[in-house]
Amino acid sequence: MKPLQLSPETAIKLAEKLNVPIEQLMHMPQHILIQKLMELQKDDQ
Questions:
Q1: Distances in whole angstroms, Cα of residue 16 to Cα of each of 1, 19, 21, 25, 35
Q2: Measured between alpha carbons, how far is residue 28 from residues 17, 20, 41, 45 in Å?
Q3: CB-based contact 41:31 (threshold 8 Å)
Q4: Could you tell me the pLDDT band of residue 1, with boundaries at 50, 70 and 90?
Q5: Which pLDDT score, from 0 to 100, does residue 43 have?
Q6: What is the pTM for the complete model shown?
Q7: What whole-number distance in Å separates Cα of residue 38 and Cα of residue 43?
Q8: In sequence order, what DSSP letters do the residues of the chain get, joined into one string?
Q9: Which of 18, 44, 38, 43 is nearest to 26 (CA)?
Q10: Alpha-carbon distance 43 to 24, whole Å?
């Protein structure tokens, strides 16, 4: 599995939002990352 293709700025912002270390974020499967982002969006509404 290849690391996610994110810019460093995006990776830092996502890691802060999701409260995970950047290394963990970069190796997170894409479908799990999308699921977590959907949960964040749901919480914001």
A1: 23, 5, 8, 10, 16
A2: 15, 10, 18, 25
A3: no
A4: low
A5: 83
A6: 0.72
A7: 9
A8: -PPP---HHHHHHHHHHHT--HHHHHTS-HHHHHHHHHHHHHHH-
A9: 18
A10: 22
Indicate if the pLDDT at residue 44 is higher than 90.
no
Sign of CA dihedral 32, 33, 37, 38: negative
The Cα angle at residue 5 between residues 3 and 7, in degrees rounded to 5: 120
Tokens of 40: 């964040």
- Looking at residue 28, the DSSP 8-state letter turns out to be S
Model confidence at 2, pLDDT cuts 50, 70, 90, reads confident
Instruction: Give the closest residue to 3 by CA, choosing from 37, 35, 33.
Output: 33
